[in-house]
């Protein structure tokens, strides 16, 4: 299709922070951004200082840093209070003997305390590991074991899912709850300790390349990978907050992601606060009315969410939109999976806003391919690489392909927020950089003749369900623990709302008969034993699963069955 024919939503924002994308691509240099930070003159770096304290000390003390709300709480926390509370938590950790480089995990639902803990951990130079609240015991164990975490901040209701006895490195369990009566050895009462802690803290100044955060993410094989990020990432978080989120100081910004996922930290904590914005956090489950109410109540101006949420809002209907005053919105963005053109069209109609798609990954730490307010949008395209970086489509030998050819989406190395390691796994890390000068994303895509990038799919088998990345291997491993399951192969099945749902093909052990009750029981087993978001929504029983001679389940064959497509090359199949 020629570019004139392509559906286009024209650029509207005349006063965007980024006025000309083309010009910035020619002239922009990352070193310009560094001048913004205190460390440019002092040489002393700490992400939490730049995000919170600098504003608390520099005229924004009484500005609301965080509007928190859920079904039972409504709190506004100023920059000064955020500074004081995170200082307190830093002191609590120091009193426990925790310091620079130690891994401290956070495993709790969203609440103001979560943010105090996250920032306080960073302030003392420790490495924070956020865990999604819904993880079950085995998922928690794998992550704490791999990272050798020394402390975890959690709630009494989640405590049973923290296998303390199996984790010799885990010395402290910090419990966030009311009226904690009896504490076992190693348990710490968050509220009581915070109440007596000083709100003055000597920040741990670290090196730009020192550890900041560890996000575990799924691949197609093996255990989850600990993606390791450093303080230097702030350069990209600040800059993309300016040019992609288009944040200005009077913005009220809402990122709907949980900090257990990278969007909820890079763009739910760092980018908005580095830019001095007011940040909104809504706890609890998704409900269209609650979400629109959040926009109306806090007069949200910039809103960052995900395709799966937009699709659910779309199916909730236009009348639900009309029941609320959403006129404060001025900039809407999306991330996590392909944003369907249909959703972009609907958003334009229902909200009067262009939804700006953005592409990046846990590993990239920050946004890389985006749509900008001052750039025309082509619905269905992820946009163009941010100034200061380059993206290309390369073939399986590392050669750059011309426009309109599908291949591996790759990013020219380095960029400021790039991961610095896979924890404990240098070989995995190297795999991303197998072609000199390139980071290979694992996504396939093409670039059109005008430089817009179009997502085509994952190259490997990772499932993207409701915006969350699930590794089939972890789910299969859990499934085969079920007494009835002999073998399991897990794929993502296309789904109009969730993007993909998890579908499991299962071969039963002898003596077990297929039934709906058994399906329900197997799904429940994964839900309770691993994580609800990773439980199969669909199960199909098979006598046998397709496997390679080396015993690897051929998920692409399962996928072809599912989609009614040819199964392709079967030369490596078992029989
Ligand atoms: C994978 C990364 C970092 C954001 C949250 C997801 C898919 C992400 C898009 C997009 C199509 C997208 C890719 C990517 N993805 N954004 N705009 N269009 N696909 O982070 O869990 O590390 O997953 O999500 O497949 O590789 P993640």
TrEMBL record:
Any one Gene Ontology cellular component term annotated for this protein: cytosol
Domain of life of the source: Bacteria
Keyword Acetylation: yes
Keyword terms: Acetylation, ATP-binding, Ligase, Nucleotide-binding
GO MF, any single term: acetate-CoA ligase activity
PROSITE patterns, A to Z: AMP_BINDING
One Pfam family matching this protein: AMP-binding_C
Matches recorded under InterPro entries: AMP-bd_C, AMP-bd_C_sf, AMP-binding_CS, AMP-dep_synth/lig_dom, ANL_N_sf
Ranges for domain AMP-binding enzyme C-terminal: 474-552
Residues in AMP-dependent synthetase/ligase domain copies: 56-423
GO terms of biological process kind: acetyl-CoA biosynthetic process
Entry annotated with the keyword Nucleotide-binding: yes
Main enzyme class: ligase
Protein EC: 6.2.1.1
PANTHER family registered for this protein in UniProt: ACETYL-COENZYME A SYNTHETASE, ACETYL-COENZYME A SYNTHETASE 1
Protein family according to the UniProt entry: Belongs to the ATP-dependent AMP-binding enzyme family.
Name of the protein in question: acetate--CoA ligase
Species this chain originates from: Paenibacillus flagellatus
Upper lineage: Bacteria, Bacillati, Bacillota, Bacilli, Bacillales
